[in-house]
């Protein structure tokens, strides 16, 4: 269930509300999703700099963070993701 949190973050919220592991990874997945949203909004608003720098680098960063989260979830670990790990939006 933790792996799904990085692909579709709300599935563990609905299916495994009692699991601390699933909720932890759902929170991390939500953080990655919000970062992706912010990168894409800012990257499309800022004309040339956004298209050439913000979008490519930001989306690669989001992809790397999602892969790190999937690897941690598949190993059964509750490691924090760099930059986003301390943010807790889901209690």
From TrEMBL:
Q: Name one Pfam family in it.
A: MamF_MmsF
Location(s), subcellular: Membrane
**Which InterPro entries does the entry mention?**
MamF_MmsF
Chief location bin: membrane
How would you describe this protein's topology in the membrane?
Multi-pass membrane protein
- The superkingdom listed in its UniProt entry is Bacteria
Mind listing the UniProt keywords for this protein, alphabetically? Membrane, Transmembrane, Transmembrane helix
Which species does this protein come from? Answer: Aquibacillus halophilus
Instruction: List all membrane-crossing ranges.
Output: 32-65
Q: Does the keyword Transmembrane helix apply?
A: yes
- Name the record gives this protein: DUF4870 domain-containing protein
């Amino acid at each position: 269930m933790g792996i799904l949190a990085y692909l579709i973050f709300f599935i563990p919220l609905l299916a495994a509300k009692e699991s601390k592991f699933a909720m932890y990874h759902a929170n991390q997945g939500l953080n990655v999703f919000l970062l992706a949203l912010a990168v894409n909004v800012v990257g499309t608003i800022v004309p040339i700099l956004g298209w050439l720098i913000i979008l490519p680098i930001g989306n690669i960063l989001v992809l790397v963070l999602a892969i790190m989260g999937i690897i941690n979830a598949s190993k059964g670990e509750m490691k924090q993701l760099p930059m986003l790990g301390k943010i807790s939006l889901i209690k």
